[in-house]
Amino acid sequence: MLYAVLFALAGGSALVAAMLPRVVDRLPVNLPMTFLACGVLLGLVPGLPAVKPMEHEAVTAHVTEIVVIISLMGAGLALDRPVGWRRWASTWRLILIAMPLTIALVALAGSALAGLPVAAAVLLGAALAPTDPVLASDVQVGEPADDEGTEDEVRFALTSEAGLNDGAAFPVVHLAVVLATAGATAGALGGWVAEDLLLRTVVGVAVGLVVGKLLGALFFRSALPALRLADDVEGFTALAVTFLAYGIAELLHGYGFLAVFVAACTIRAAERSHGAHRVAHGFVEQVERMLTSWLLLLLGAALADGLLSALTWQLAVVGTLLVLVIRPAVGYLSLLGTRGGPRERTVIAAYGVRGVGSLFYLSWALGEGRFPADRLWAAVGFTVALSVLVHGASAAPVVRRLDARRRRRARSEDPGEIAGTHV
Known about the structure:
Layout: H1 2-23, H2 31-43, H3 57-78, H4 89-112, H5 118-128, H6 153-168, H7 170-181, H8 186-221, H9 237-251, H10 256-270, H11 276-307, H12 313-334, H13 342-350, H14 356-366, H15 373-413
Helix pairs in contact: 1-11, 2-11, 2-15, 3-6, 3-9, 3-10, 3-11, 3-14, 4-5, 4-6, 4-12, 5-7, 5-14, 5-15, 6-10, 6-13, 7-8, 7-14, 8-9, 8-10, 9-10, 11-15, 12-13, 12-15, 13-15, 14-15
């Protein structure tokens, strides 16, 4: 009987995930908010099994891992703008300035306000620092376009940042594990710099480039028509690339998240305007939406089943500071001098959505070292839920106003031409 109920819930939630975006298109509600709330209600239903991620850390890590890498492939395929230092200036600043400052400030707040040990505070900062490519669809680019320059700066910056910072935060998660297991010794920190910071990053990027180059040439320019898969577009090939790049990078002790995103960007660059990208992206987006709906139901149920039982007001303050103060402040400061005006910079800084990546990092680290798991899960669960509610309720209206302002400005500057906005 229970299995039948679970199958019915899985099918019903997937169906709702397909219909919901059309139903709430003009409302301050989105898919993550709805499914998180439904999960909380399910968690209160007697007779259903309790959802306890702390008791199933390996399962939680693998499930969230799959959702993140699929979303990273979708983000990489969606970006129309070629990779470059100036073209991606906002992205590099968010990764190299905003994210390290966010990690440091959250870790400092976790230690000073909530009394977390240093290793746990660093882990909290690293887990909560990445923005999420899974839950931020309202402020990200849409399907791939044929022409460059169709993306506005807000959507481009948030999508590219979310694609890169899941991998960029992993070295700091490893640092937290090192501090918890070996301590802050010179040998341990030297090994962390050599292996976890440098080697794994280089291997992840290299694997992504090689896989993307080889498969891009195979898909679009193979001398054998049977191997030119882009001619007979199959959306599931995007999943094949995702798992292949991730698996090879992990086997070689590199960061698989980086490999997947780099591979997606490289394949996109191999034949930028080909229609195969839209088909592949559409398939990935559908799979991602289905898996996200299930995952959010489980997270909501976990919240109702006691995930927040160890939450203190100090930990709640840390999460609130991150969402409402720390990320908006350091994000805005890091973007000074980049493309876009103050409004665009404000939106980019404010909408660093926290989500599935944070759940993965936490569950992975808890399987590698000893941390106060109940407090960390409470802090991360609270912050993700707060981010889903705050950002979900306000993102779509804010972005619509930015789009309307951009169109008005385009009409005033050139009445015969309206600047395209890729939604």
